[in-house]
Amino acid sequence: MANQRMTQTQLVKALDYLSTLAISEVKKNGMFVLPGIGRLVRSDRKARTGRNPSTGETIKIPAKKVVKFRVAKAAKDAIVPPKKAK
């Protein structure tokens, strides 16, 4: 079996497809999982009060939806190995 490599054009198309798929899945289901890497998760932030750092004025920050990336334990442990117990 020959070792096949992707061209840069093929790689760009594959990554474009993956990002389009991730966006549509998060919109539809609220989550997209990349096994062994992590997951994109849509979550809701509550409305809150904050401060304008330049004036110190209190402002209201409205509720909104945000997307977070949660790293999979396997990827996290591979990048930053857990401390060993003494």
Description:
This protein has one domain: Irregular (HU Protein, Chain A), CATH 4.10.520. 34% of the residues lie in helices and 33% in strands. The protein is built from two helices and five strands; from the N terminus they run αβββββα. The strands form two sheets. A three-stranded antiparallel sheet has the order 1-2-5. Strands 3-4 form a two-stranded antiparallel sheet. The longest helix is centred in the N-terminal third of the chain and has 22 residues.
- Sequence stretches where pLDDT stays below 50 over 5 or more residues: none
Q: Could you give the order of strands across the largest sheet? A: 1-2-5
The end-to-end span amounts to: 47 Å
Coarse shape: extended
CATH secondary-structure class: Few Secondary Structures
Q: What is the ordering of alpha helices and beta strands?
A: HEEEEEH
Structural class: alpha+beta
Percent helix = 25-40%
Major pleated sheet: 3 strands, antiparallel
How many strand elements?
5
Oligomer: single chain
Q: What is the CATH topology?
A: HU Protein, Chain A
Second CATH tier, the architecture: Irregular
Radius of gyration: 20 Å
Compute the average pLDDT: 92
Number of helices: 2
The total tally of domains equals: 1
CATH superfamily: IHF-like DNA-binding proteins
Strand content: 25-35%
